[in-house]
Amino acid sequence: MSITQQYFLDAYRAGQAGEPAPPAPGANDWQVVREWRDQREFRAVVAGRPAHGPIRLALGRWLHRRRRSSC
Questions:
Q1: For residue 59, pLDDT beyond 90
Q2: CB atoms within 10 A of CB 64
Q3: Cα angle vertex 68, ends 67, 71, to 5°?
Q4: Mean pLDDT, residues 13-33
Q5: Axis crossing angle, helix 29-46 with helix 54-70, rounded to the nearest 10
Q6: Fewest C-beta in 10 Å: which of 4, 14, 18, 57?
Q7: Are 25 and 3 in contact, with CB atoms under 8 Å apart?
């Protein structure tokens, strides 16, 4: 059964039971991506690394590991 078929079945069952339909597949994908990015940037700030995007974050991690291993 595909995700679309499962969604329609769940929506039908919810309608029969008088409950609200579940959210459509993919309806909250961008919200999840934004929350993941915000959490990643927050952790970078807490760890003292720059939080200006994925490339600078990866560079900060690399530098952090390099400094730690050279001590």
A1: no
A2: 13
A3: 85
A4: 90
A5: 30
A6: 18
A7: yes
Q: How many Å apart are CA 1 and CA 54, to the nearest integer?
A: 36
The pLDDT value given to residue 10: 95
| pTM (2 d.p.) | 0.45
Give the model's pLDDT for residue 5. 93
Give mean pLDDT, residues 15-41.
88
Structure-block tokens of residue 64: 């952090």
Half-sphere exposure of 9 (CA within 13 A, CB side): 6
Structure tokens of 65?
A: 């590991």
User: For residues 56 and 4, what is the distance between their CA atoms, to the nearest angstrom?
Assistant: 38
Question: DSSP per residue over 16-68, as a string?
Answer: HHTPPPPPPTTTTHHHHHHHHHHHHHHHHHHTT---S-HHHHHHHHHHHHHHH
